[in-house]
Structures are given as structure tokens and as C-alpha cells.
């Protein structure tokens, strides 16, 4: 079944992006009803983060998120098998001057979990880049994802492994595509407010920046309507980061993510159980 799924995704990359967007959106409408557990997770997340919005408004946002999420799955066929020329044409890069200002030195790209995050392959065609990923239980799927995400070079390190290879790569001039806004438990984390809700937040961004002596450049990808493509925006390097205060650094990171979420709330990864880990004595959300 996994190999069949991979084959089907591969066949899709021959289609125009507008057609892929329509297929993904239709799949998202169907998935909203077929996956009740994740539908519940999205509703809970939205209720916690946007209590001021009406239930009807949050429901529209939940449905839109499923459409964008399934679009991202379908459209990964382009990132994983499309030509260099096609990827360059589909992804507009804004703020590339901030990478040029590094003059070949390494940096940490802070990449929040927006659904279009795989479009980062547009940068991987030009710059040395490494990242981390979570091993998949299915070996065939794991091997395929590893191969596709490194098709233009660079490296992937298992999330469960040490950070030493990533830090060495940054010190030798690589960009480290780092996605630190998921709940992986209590190890190496602190609680910090995300939309007013205490969220288990890794302190790794400040740790890596400090150890690698590298600046942090936020990097966010937006999916455009239909077949219009993607916008990959790179923000200026943060000043005075890390500050030496883990709580302040975590809050700064989450505040930046909140601002971007408010710009395109339907594209943030609400399917994830972001508030799974709770402070001691607090009831579970999910």
C-alpha cells in the first residue's frame, strides 16, 4: 500500500499546479469528515487559541485548514519530483538579501509549521542546507521522504539524534532549517504562552544559535490560491538573540509565530496536538 501511495503521488507531479490544488482541496473536504480524531484536534486547538471568534468562524477555519493541508500533501509531488526550472517558476523568494548578507556563513532558519514548508527545496537548490526529520515507521516511506528531501543535496538528521552534526554543518556554512514549534514532550522544553495558552516549547533555537555562533533568520512559506504558486519569505536576522534568558527567547519565538499565524491562520499546522503536554496538575486537552 505504501508503494502504491508513492506511485500515485509521483504520477501527480505531471499535472499543472492548479489541477493539483483542486485535487488537494477536494481531498481536504473529504478528509474533514473521514478523520474525526484529527477534526477534533483542530477544533480544540482553534477554540484554545481563538476563543474570541465565533464557533461558526472557527469551523470555517477548520475546514479551510483541512483543504490547505491536503493540498500540501498533493503538491509535494512537485517538490519531490518536479524539475528545477518548474520549482524556480512556482516559488517566489522574498528577502533573499538577508541570506546574501551572511556572506557564506551558516545560520538557523526558524521555520514554523505552516503547511507549505516543503517548498524550502527552492532554497536548497542554491545554498547548502540541513534539517531534522522524524523517522517514519514504514521503511519504504521513510526512505522515500529522506531521498526526496535531499534530492538537491544537503543533509537530514533524525530528530531523536544528537544535534552535533547540525551544529558542525552550520559552522561550516550550511543553513539549518529548524522547525521548533511542535510538542514532543517535556524534555528540553519550557512552558511559554502561545495565544495565551501554556505550550511546551523547545529551547533548542537559542541553544543551537549560541553553540553554533550563528544568527537566526525566520523563514515562512505561504501557499497562494489555486495554481498561483508559493511565496517563501526570509526575514532579517534577529538582533540580541539568544538573550541568555530561555523563557524570554521562547516567548520571542512564539510571538513571531503568532504574528504569522494571524496573517494566514488556515495554513498553520492545527492538526498537531500542540498542547498535548500540560503543566503538572492541569487536565489534558485531547
**Class of secondary structure makeup:** alpha/beta
Q: Quote the distance from N terminus to C terminus.
A: 30 Å
The largest pleated sheet is described as:
7 strands, mixed
Q: How would you write the strand order of the largest sheet?
A: 1-9-8-2-5-3-4
Rg over C-alpha atoms, rounded to the nearest angstrom: 19 Å
Q: How many distinct beta strands?
A: 9
CATH topology grouping: Glycerol-3-phosphate (1)-acyltransferase
Taken from the alpha-carbon principal axes, the silhouette is globular
- Mean model confidence by pLDDT: 94
Which architecture does the CATH hierarchy give at level 2? 3-Layer(aba) Sandwich
Characteristics of this structure?
286 residues; alpha/beta; Glycerol-3-phosphate (1)-acyltransferase; two-stranded antiparallel sheet; 11 helices; 46% helix; globular
Description:
The chain is α/β, with parallel strands linked by helices and 286 residues long. It has a single domain (2-267), classed as 3-Layer(aba) Sandwich (Glycerol-3-phosphate (1)-acyltransferase), CATH 3.40.1130. The protein contains eleven helices and nine strands. α8 (139-149) links the parallel β3 and β4. It is globular.
Amino acid at each position: 500500500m505504501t508503494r502504491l501511495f508513492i506511485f500515485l503521488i509521483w504520477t501527480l507531479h505531471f499535472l499543472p499546479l492548479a489541477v493539483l490544488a483542486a485535487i488537494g482541496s477536494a481531498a481536504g473536504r473529504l478528509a474533514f469528515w473521514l478523520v474525526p480524531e484529527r477534526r477534533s484536534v483542530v477544533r480544540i486547538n482553534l477554540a484554545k487559541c481563538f476563543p474570541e471568534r465565533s464557533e461558526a468562524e472557527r469551523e470555517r477555519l477548520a475546514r479551510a485548514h483541512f483543504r490547505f493541508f491536503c493540498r500540501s500533501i498533493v503538491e509535494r509531488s512537485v517538490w519531490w519530483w518536479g524539475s528545477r526550472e518548474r520549482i524556480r517558476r512556482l516559488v517566489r523568494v522574498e528577502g533573499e538579501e538577508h541570506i546574501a548578507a551572511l556572506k557564506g556563513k551558516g545560520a538557523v532558519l526558524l521555520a514554523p509549521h505552516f503547511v507549505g514548508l516543503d517548498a524550502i527545496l527552492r532554497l536548497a537548490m542554491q545554498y547548502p542546507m540541513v534539517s531534522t526529520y522524524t523517522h517514519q515507521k514504514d521503511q519504504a516511506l521513510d526512505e522515500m521522504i529522506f531521498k526526496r528531501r535531499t534530492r538537491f543535496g544537503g543533509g537530514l538528521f533524525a530528530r531523536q539524534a544528537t544535534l552535533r552534526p547540525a551544529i558542525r554543518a552550520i559552522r561550516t556554512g550550511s543553513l539549518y532549517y529548524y522547525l521548533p514549534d511542535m510538542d514532543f514532550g517535556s524534555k528540553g522544553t519550557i512552558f511559554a504562552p502561545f495565544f495565551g495558552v501554556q505550550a511546551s516549547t523547545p529551547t533548542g533555537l537559542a541553544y543551537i544559535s549560541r553553540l553554533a555562533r550563528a544568527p537566526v533568520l525566520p523563514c515562512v512559506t505561504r501557499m497562494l490560491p489555486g495554481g498561483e504558486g508559493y511565496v517563501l519569505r526570509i526575514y532579517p536576522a534577529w538582533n540580541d538573540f539568544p538573550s541568555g534568558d530561555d523563557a524570554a527567547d521562547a516567548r520571542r519565538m512564539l510571538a513571531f509565530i503568532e504574528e504569522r499565524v494571524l496573517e494566514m491562520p488556515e495554513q498553520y499546522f492545527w492538526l498537531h496536538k500542540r498542547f498535548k503536554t500540560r503543566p503538572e496538575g492541569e487536565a489534558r486537552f485531547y
